[in-house]
């Protein structure tokens, strides 16, 4: 091979090296920008936890809690919306850093994920049509209840002998009840009281599932990040002690 050919090869390699260096610098800058963000997974359709108002803006008391946590961490929150049934899988895939979506820290979930201290403890209630004849949890045996199949509320229904009609979320569930295509749906006290306040003419009523224990809700993250978990817990403690958490809840749950 001639010296001239070697010279051309060397020049080409030099250009390639500079190009790769530029790419590496670009990736490094992108990583630096990403480090200032914290990605938050939520449904975005679950009022009053996290939903879009009439203007299309994402609002809700869990959204505000996430805003406050991100601010305390010095991060910019980036919200990633996902249907309930794929929400947890998105955390597995690292689509976001945490999930805040009325999640209960069940033993099964805690085996795979870490949870913060609870920020709210909800009670299970059922919503049914006023003309359904259903008055208490004892009436739910053999009845069809519209639920997201993997939720703790679906388990409440199973414990009472009810049958699950699978849905993608509360909005679908309550619509089936109103249409008479399901007998009931069970959900948290905040969710149901808020819904009735927003729909005062809906032919619906609610009653408490007395046998169901209070359900704590917490922020969920992947295991292996103790620093983030500790930081989130410290921020939550500050929100509680300052009264800010209560004011956020009250803003979105006037009847809770």
TrEMBL record:
PROSITE patterns: PROKAR_LIPOPROTEIN. It comes from the Bacteria. Residues 1-24 form the signal peptide. It comes from Actinobaculum massiliense ACS-171-V-Col2. Residues 37-256 form the Solute-binding protein family 3/N-terminal domain. Keywords: Signal. It holds the Pfam family SBP_bac_3. InterPro entries: Solute-binding_3/MltF_N (IPR001638). SMART domains: PBPb (SM00062). This is Solute-binding protein family 3/N-terminal domain-containing protein. Transmembrane segments: none annotated.
């Amino acid at each position: 091979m001639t010296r001239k050919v070697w010279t051309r090869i060397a020049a080409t390699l030099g250009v390639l090296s500079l190009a790769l260096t530029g790419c590496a610098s670009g990736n490094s800058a992108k990583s630096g920008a990403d480090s200032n963000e914290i990605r938050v997974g939520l449904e975005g359709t679950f009022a009053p936890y996290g939903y879009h108002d009439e203007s299309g803006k994402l609002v809700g008391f869990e959204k505000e809690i996430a805003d406050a946590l991100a601010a305390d961490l010095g991060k910019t929150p980036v919200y990633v919306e996902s249907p309930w049934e794929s929400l947890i899988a998105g955390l597995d895939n690292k689509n976001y850093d945490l999930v805040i979506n009325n999640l209960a820290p069940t033993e099964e979930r805690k085996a795979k994920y870490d949870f913060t201290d609870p920020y709210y403890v909800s009670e299970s209630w059922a919503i049914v049509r006023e003309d359904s004849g259903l008055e208490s949890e004892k009436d739910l045996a053999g009845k069809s209840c519209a639920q997201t199949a993997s939720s703790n509320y679906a388990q409440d229904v199973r414990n009472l002998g009810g049958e699950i009609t699978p849905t993608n979320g509360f909005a679908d569930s309550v619509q089936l009840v109103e249409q008479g295509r399901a007998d009931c749906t069970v959900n948290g006290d905040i969710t149901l009281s808020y819904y009735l306040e927003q729909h005062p003419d809906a032919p619906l009523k609610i009653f408490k599932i007395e046998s169901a224990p209070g359900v704590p809700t917490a922020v969920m993250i992947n295991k292996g990040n103790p620093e983030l978990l500790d930081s989130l817990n410290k921020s939550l403690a500050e929100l509680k002690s300052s009264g800010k958490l209560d004011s956020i809840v009250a803003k979105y749950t006037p009847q809770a």
